[in-house]
Each structure stands twice: as C-alpha cells, then as structure tokens.
Amino acid sequence: MLTLDTHVDIRWPDPPDPLAEGPMRVDFPKMQRGELNAVIFIAYVGQGKRDESAHAAAAERAEAMLRHIRDRADGEAHRFCTTPDELEACHAAGALGVLSAVENGYAMGRDLGAPARWRALGACYLTLTHDGHNDLADSARPQKRLGDAPAEHGGLSPLGRQAIAALNEAGLMVDVSHVAKTGMLQAAELSHSPIVATHTACRALHDHPRGIDDEQLDALKAVGGLAQITAVPAFLRPTPEGGRNPGSVEDMADHVDHAVRRIGIEHVGVSSDFDGGGGVDGWQNAAETPGLTAALAKRGYGERELGLLWSGNFLRLWRQALAVAD
After folding, report:
1. Which terminus of the chain, N or C, has less C-beta within 10 A?
2. Which range marks the domain in which residue 18 is found?
3. CATH value at residue 163
4. Where is this region: Disordered (predicted)?
5. pLDDT score recorded for residue 197
6. 3-class secondary structure per residue, the chain
C-alpha cells in the first residue's frame, strides 16, 4: 500500500534538515519508521496586503519554497516526484517520495502565468485561499485583522474564475480546503478536472468553518472530486474551554465513516496537516502513521479501501488534472 500524506507544512525561512530526526512532525527518519511512503510538502504563504509589492514578495517566497522542497530530495533514497507514475515507481523502488504544492492563491497575485511556473517547479496543486479573502476567492475564515467583510466576491472573483482555467491548463489540481462554500461550489462547476479538499472535515459531525457540509460533499461526488479528512483536532470535535482538544484517530475515522456513507469510498481520503496544526492522539507525527491505518482497519476498511483512502483516490484526481492539461 502506498501511504501518501497530501498536506504537510515546512518551517520557513529556516527549514530544518529533513535527513535528521528533528523537532518537526515530519522528517525522513520519522517517515521511514512509520512507513509513510510519500509526502506533499507545502509552499505556504500567509495572507497579507494586496498590493503589487506584497504580491511580489508572496510569489518570491512561494517559488523559493518550491525550489527548496524539490532540492531536499537526493534522487535515490528520497525522490522528488512530479507525476503519479514517478511516485508509483519511487514507491516500487523502496524510496521515499517528496512532492510539492502551493497553499494560498495570494502567491499568484494577479499573475495568471504563475500556475505554469509552479507546475514547472513540480507542484501538483494550489489551495486557492488561506485564512482571509484574497483576490481570487472568499475564504471560509475571513480575518478582521485584514479588514475582511464576511464576503467580498460572492465566492470566486472574475480573476479567480480565470485562475481556475489557468490551473486546469497547467495541470495543477484545484484545492478548495480554505475556500468559502460559495466559492467551493463555483469551483466545482467551473473546473474541467475534479476538485479536491486536501485537508478538511465533515461539518455534520462538528460545525467548524473549515469543514464542509453534506451539500458540499455531494458536490464533490457529482464532479468526481475528493474530500480528505485531516488530523486537526479543532476540525474534528469541539475544544473544551480552557482545555486540550482530545482529537484522536478515532475522531478521524468517524469523519471518514460519515463521508464514505454520504458519497462513497472513491471520494474520500486522509491527510495530516502536520506542522500546520495537525496532530491527534494516535497520529502525532509521521512515525505514528500505522495508528491511523489501524483505526480505519478496525472500522472494516480492507486493503482496497485503505489503498484508496491513503493514495488511490488522490492519484486518480492527479492523473485527471494532467490529462485535462494535455
């Protein structure tokens, strides 16, 4: 089984050496120990001012991070993979897979050529927003510190609609994890390849703004898309006032169960959001990856289903995105 964690943040601008056991939840020794075969490391850019100089700085940061992620793989024991076929060959050779993606379309600014550049650097998806509206879309979590109204564009902006087309043309998947419901539903209709929520949860079980509701789950199924349940405790269950959130792999399994019952195993996956807020009892770092697999197996998910949840569904969407670009 190919275990692929599709959303892991890195520290920037001073990332630690992934070859050594360190303070991050994901590094190569932990991946090896926990049989986590591959990881998509994220070039994350936080939301800021929307002017020319700020957009330029965001673009520079994102592309520097993409180059760093690419360069952290040695080509032998740790291979940088830019296609599903490369990842599967990497896994067959017993090497660890290193992949990349961009989080927050803020890094695009108003440059519709950015997706093609990011794809050339190896990225496989773009998360359209983060916390706070940007020029592409409304965020699920507007930020008062940025002066955000509850909604700005009514979902996607005209530029955001053009960005969807640019992502399709470049072969990057459209990640709607942080996008407001209006924009998520619009992206589902507009994108020529299926959309994905790489790190989310089910609002039917816990009504958190970063989750997706049953109508959104249905929309993902209708377009062949994917909802990936992530290991962020606050998304999975309420946090006791003044206490520690007791999120666990069992909570993740509850959300997986709900999504599977609603839209089918072919449209559900898992991810961690490690080093970006993720980490639950039973899966606190890459070395504990078997804990989540065991929790899902206890629910009756067999080898086929586990393979789909861990990587099969994501690879299908990735292949479709590349086919659309071709």
Report:
1. C
2. 4-325
3. 3.20.20.140
4. 136-155
5. 98
6. CCCEEEEEECCCCCCCCCCCCCCCCCCHHHHHHHCCCEEEEEEECCCCCCCHHHHHHHHHHHHHHHHHHHHCCCCCCEEECCCHHHHHHHHHCCCEEEEEEEECHHHHCCCCCHHHHHHHCCEEEEECCECECCCCECECCCCHHHCCCCCCCCCECHHHHHHHHHHHHHCCEEECCCECHHHHHHHHHHCCCCCEEEEECECCCCCCCCCECHHHHHHHHHCCCEEEEECCHHHHCCCCCCCCCCCEHHHHHHHHHHHHHHHCHHHEEEECCECCCECEECECCHHHHHHHHHHHHHCCCCHHHHHHHHHHHHHHHHHHHHHHHC
